[in-house]
Sequence to fold (334 residues):
Amino acid sequence: MKAITIDRYGGPEVLQKRDIPVPEPGPQDVLVKVACAGINFMDIHTRQGKYASSKTYSVQLPCTLGMEGAGEVVKVGRAVTNVARRNRVAWCISWGSYAEYARVPAALIAKLPDAISFDVAAASLFQGCTAHYLVHDVARLAPGSSCLIHAASGSIGQLLIQLAKRLGTTVFATASSSAKCDVARRLGADHTMLYDNGRFANVIREATDGRGVDVVFDSVGRATLRDSFRATRVRGLVVNYGSVSGSLDDLDPLELGEAGSLFLTRPRLADHLPDAATVQMRADDVFAAVLEGALQIPIVARYTLDDVEQAHAMIEGREQIGKSILCLPAELHR
Fold:
């Protein structure tokens, strides 16, 4: 089968299109004929080697890239009970979807409603499940609460805005340009602003009469995290779920006390997808919101196995607002 693999870490040039054997599913795995694969920053970070020593997301070289996909089950391991052959499925945080076939642990598989197409499924599951657990499990947003969402025009940021507004939350959103602020505003953000070298915190304090927001969703990291503390109310919560600007490696816990006895957490999706039932529950909620029209999943670019290097370069350069997917030459699109 055709697949995109890496045998060393580096830039987009290390991506290789190869013929490799079709994987054989183990007792608790399924083999899926891939129709579409999501293209994510996690793929970029995997290629760069940022997960080389991760215990949560263990990825060893050589590997086939792609940690999100959708397709049809063609083979089932003998211990699998939650899915069967010919089921239409999607998955995330299981590597190997940049290929014609992928071996996926059955515990990470979600069955698709008939009304959800493979491309929408591959574009929505990873970011959708991430936004779902952040909003419902970590932040526990509710009517009347307030939050700040950084990188609000990004794939997860867009979903956080929509899910937070669905719960009746006041949303403050930051972005790096006026055009990206416009994206957040169109999705329902109540207040939008530029990062402005951290002065977003001053704007939020003024807008909340000095109180600050209940929750900050910070995927930027080093460039924003300390100012996120300034934007948070006393005993509020800062959720650092990504570090695209780098990690803050000199944080003294005393700073949290000085900022108002804040709570700081660094969650990961894997710990919030502990079993097949939870995966299916989150997927069902995300797909239901999509079908209701309450959740928009913009697919802004489609690539093939031959364009993966171009796709990585575009995403790494942050030249796209929205989700990119990889479309396989399968006859599954229907």
Summary: The chain has two domains: 2-127+273-327, 142-266. The mean pLDDT is 94.
